[in-house]
Structures are given as C-alpha cells and as structure tokens.
Amino acid sequence: MNPLLNLRKSIGFGFMNASWPGSPVLTDEKAREAFLDVLRFALDEGVTFFDTADIYAPSWDAMGHNEILLADAIDGWSGSAEQKQSLVLATKGGITRSEGELWGRNASADYLVRAAERSAKNLRVAVIPVWQHHRLDPSRTFSEALAGLKAVKASGIARHIGVSNYNAKQLRAAFDAVGGPADGGLVSVQNQLNPVYHHDMDVLEICEELGLAYLPWSPMMGARSTESESKSYDILDESAQAQGVSRFAVASAWLRSLSPNLVVMPGVTKRESVLDSLSGLDFVLSDSDLARLNRELESGPVHHEIISDQPLVD
Prior knowledge:
Blueprint: E1 13-14, H1 29-44, E2 49-51, H2 65-75, H3 81-85, E3 88-93, E4 95-98, E5 102-105, H4 109-123, E6 128-133, H5 142-155, E7 158-164, H6 168-178, E8 186-190, H7 201-210, E9 213-214, H8 231-243, H9 247-258, H10 271-280, H11 287-296, H12 304-308
Parallel strand pairs: 1-2, 2-3, 3-6, 6-7, 7-8, 8-9
Antiparallel strand pairs: 4-5
Helix pairs in contact: 1-2, 4-5, 5-6, 6-7, 8-9, 9-10
C-alpha cells in the first residue's frame, strides 16, 4: 500500500518559507508560535501529510530547521498518540550546504544514510515515513545514486523511499533498484509541476503504471500575485473570477485533473491558506475550462538545475 495514495485528505503541505531567510518565524517568538498554530490547525482539519527537507533552513549551520519546526508543531498538537503515529512525514536529503553558504550535492551511500539519520533525529521519529533523495549528484554516476538509495532503505531509517528531480528513465531504474510500495521501497517522485512548468508528463505516466505518487513542487507557481505579468496568471485569474474561487483552487484542480496519482502540496502560511487549499479539493473544472487551460497555459524551459545535476555516465 502506498501511504501517499491512501491519505485521509489527498493533499500535503510544505512550509519551506517559514525557515527561509527573512521569515518572521526566525526572529519573533510570537510569529513562530502563530505559525506552529497554523500547522496544528491543518492537523486538526485532518491533514496527515507534510513535506520538508533538511536544507530548508536560514543558514548552512542551521540545517534541519524546517524539520524541527514540524516536530515542534506535532509535539504541541492535541492529537492522540495513534493520530501522531499515522502522520506521513516526508523529508529530503542529498543537497549539501557548508560554511560560506556553499551549496552542493552528495549522493554517496554514507552521506545519504547519515543525512536520513539526522533528519529522523530532527523529526523526533525512530523511522521516517518517507525519505526522498532530493537531487542527483553530478560528481557521481547514477549507479552510485542508486547504491545510496539502497543503503538508506537497508539502514531501516526510512519506511519508504522517494526520489526528486528524476526523469522517467531514472525513476524506473530507482523502482527496479529498491522496489515499490509493497516492498517498503519507492513510493513517490517529487518533480516541479505547475501551471507555468509542465514537463515530465512521461514521469506522471510511470507513476500511474507503478502505483507511485507524483508530488509536484512549487505547484502554485503562476497563480501568485507576484506573477501577475504572465499570460498563465491571466488565464487562471479569469477562470477563478468566473467561478468564484481563488486562482489557487483553479491551479489545484488543473493539477489534479492530470492524474489520480498526483498529490498537491501547496505552501502553507496562515489558517486562511489552509482552508482555501482544503476547500479547493472539492472544486472541479469543467471540460471546457480544462481544455482551455491545457491549450493555453505556457510552460517555461527545463529548470537549469535539472540539467546541471545530471550524473556522470556509468
């Protein structure tokens, strides 16, 4: 059974920005407590899936900040021990940060296992429900990345494995290497997918074939007011106004129309955004609206890091 395709509510929340430089959560205790209350509100509303990563932090020497934030929210939540045990916490490792804010990649088995162990400590769990390889390492071969995945699975620190920013061929190879949901192996891929970036549709097809969840990162890109100059924003806005919903509800409905294996992961900042995202799960676009979105939404070029992170040839 794939825990990401059997969620009580078919949605997950990310909250990277709460740990990013400039966030009031970092410097104001009241803001921090207010944000923890937002996460607890989502839990009270029945959300059981949360996505984080070890690099979501204000600085290189505060790695794990976002994971700790999630753990603090869960610790202070009024849910029962059984409810807390049933949560699907997903984190990622494989991107490095070092002194001077030097960013890199490391897909060695030793590094990935140690990263997963640190994440488990930050999340205060004995076993991470879903651990995901964040990005490939251009200094190593893909076979070495697969060896790293196998090592994390063999360590027992993760109940299930996921990958991120893998192409279709790489995803299938990862599935072959560590097994699928029934084996405690691969359950997901997390690639960028949103109204202004819709590559990797072949990856989505493989998810349906293999019973994997597709977790789109930056799912609401194109729907935010900061992107109001784009054609895609105008299309989303027109549809939203015509139907009396938010642009985010339209973006969510469009994404969910692409596949039953897709689980939307919007960012959460306040209670209103939680409620809007949850209400958006009931919104369905008409066939004509879907046809227009599929025809007119524009997609930008392949993300530059996808190109630069490709591994060495075996």
